[in-house]
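Predict structure. Chain length: 64.
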Amino acid sequence: MPSWLRKAVEAAQTVEDAALATGAAIAVLDARLSAATKNGPAPVGSASRSPLPRHGATGGSRQG
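Prediction complete.
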């Protein structure tokens, strides 16, 4: 097998592996989303839904 063809086959296998990994990750996220929506929304102020730390602490510097 010519080296260029071997490299092309290896590249195709790498792309296929990446596609399979992406598909698996999507399946996991889909399952988590289904479970989360099945159980209803999180309560207001839930740490799992809030991107900010509790008590209004943002880590910024104080002014004044």
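Summary: The longest helix spans residues 3-38.
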